[in-house]
Amino acid sequence: MGAGTARLSxxxxxxTRFSLPLPPDQGRPTPSRSPAPAAAPGGPSRPLPPLxxxxxxxxxxxxxxxxxxxxxxxxxxxxxxxxxxRLFGYVDVTDTGFIVAVLSIAFNPFFWNVVxxxxxxxxxxxxxxxxxxxxxxxxxxxILLLNCVRSHCFTEAMKSQPKLEGWDCHWTYYSxxxxxxxxxxxxxxxxxxxxxxxxxLGDYFGILMEEKVTxxxxxxxxxxxxxxxxxxxxxxxxxxxxxxxxxxxxxxAISYTIAVLYEGPFTEEIYRRxxxxxxxx
Length: 281
Prior knowledge:
Layout: H1 10-13, H2 81-89, H3 96-122, H4 124-129, H5 132-159, H6 170-199, H7 224-239, H8 243-280
């Protein structure tokens, strides 16, 4: 810069600042050990001092403790839809093996209820096989064969579908094994308590029991044969970590529930007629 050039004063070199008028006692600068931070554009000419942090000591008083807001949160029951979508996303319901398994599960109780009621009305099987007991044994053999076919279709449908990786572990396997063992106990004890004819619809053939069975497992739950069979399929599905098996197990439970709704009142009516016949004698 040349010697003849006039120098502008510092006040004139600074750009013009617009600030709100301050009272006389606040317009004076206060000495401080550290330079004040620059004011934000468009803000006040002198920034406010920062608040002391929680737990720090201040020269003017004790530490400032910031109160925590008191909020009450209520838990909301939510269904993990994403988990359900992932679970059933493993199942291909259009697979031929899966469809065959569903049909075999639904067909079995439908078949034995239709045939048993037809026999109760017409006695056609008893006349064909020569006696009600022989006809009951033949129907029981057919039901056992159908159950074997159902179990085979169930297993093949599980094998053709993917496994759930999170369940493919020892804990799930042994849990399924324990559930299957409980189901097998219910099925076996029910068969021993009812006998062959009591298990396979002998009352529809006129082979009635002397009294209602109330021993184990009938002392714990009704229709233990059905629910024991459902537990076996549930345990089998867990042992294979199969989402398809779980879905088929639900189909088994639904089919048995519908069967109980039809069988229960009809069987009670059969024994009610028996009681009336005994009293009339």
